[in-house]
Amino acid sequence: MMNTPEQRAASGPAFTPNEAVSFMVVTDSQDATDRYWHAIVGHGGSESDCGWCKDRWGHSWQITPQRLLDLVTSSDRNEAKRAFEAMMTMKKIDLAALEAAVAGH
User: Fold this and answer.
1) Buried b (16+ CB within 10 A) or exposed e, 63-102
2) Which CATH superfamily is 22-102 part of?
């Protein structure tokens, strides 16, 4: 998956995908975030909160801009708090809205 080796087992209907396992894609721009998001949600998937979505097979994905990670781990705790609170209101992460929230707008 995405040029990463993986191993799968045929487990049958007793084992279904859930949020205990997710794939995280760290993006470098809003365009990349949009591209991954729409590739998953736009092809039979569904939106979840805070940058999470599910593909049509039920696998969970986190489409996460690097900028979000930088902001929520900022040494400026007020900036980190505003970024986190903004993220909590989003489905797909919107970097412009995130930056506005961090700036206090």
Assistant:
1) bbbebbeebbebeeeebbebbbebbeebebbbbeebeebb
2) 2,3-Dihydroxybiphenyl 1,2-Dioxygenase, domain 1 (3.10.180.10)
